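Something for you to look into today, if you have time. I want to see for myself how the chain folds. Leave the record below and I will have a look.
***
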Amino acid sequence: MRFLASFLLFLLAAQPAAAATTVYATGVSSQSGVVSNLANGFGPANGAAADIGGAVTFFGFTIGQAGQVVYSFGQALSGAGLQLTGLGGGPGVPAVRISIGEIVGGVATFSTEVAFAGGAGIFNFDLSTQCSAISLTGCSLLRIRTLGGFGRGPFHLDGVSGVAAAPEPAAWALMLFGFAGVAWRLKRQRAAAPALVRING
């Protein structure tokens, strides 16, 4: 029986790790400033953009308007493998800030921000260190905001995704194997312990 259990655990641990599960935004937790079409940020990139921020042209000068959205995910993210897809077009260059967060004690708590110049393209980030500083079980919120000012414009977000915060099957197998080893060792120690004999006298 022990051999069979050990063999099954070995087979499970020897399986190649499954590909990381990609998780897409499923809702909007909050929004402020100039934002529109936020549902276009759900799911994989499809050519339809959510606009975060805005821009007006005044005497030939572009003035950006700030906007902020907090996307929520149905499954907690690890913070690694965050991917934002941006579409080009429109006036100005967006100045974008992102941070990852979780609801802790009923309050949305966010990490320090990471800045980048938005526009057309795929933007990849690893915020796993920031996420683990907030919550050990993963983060389910992603805040994206744009800054206003001269020469700034909106960020056209086509899709946002991340990697789920779940252990790989091999990690589970290793944990189970470790617990089985500890249990076996404890059982063996109890069986080998000498019985104490009390002598009255």
Summary: The longest strand covers residues 22-33.
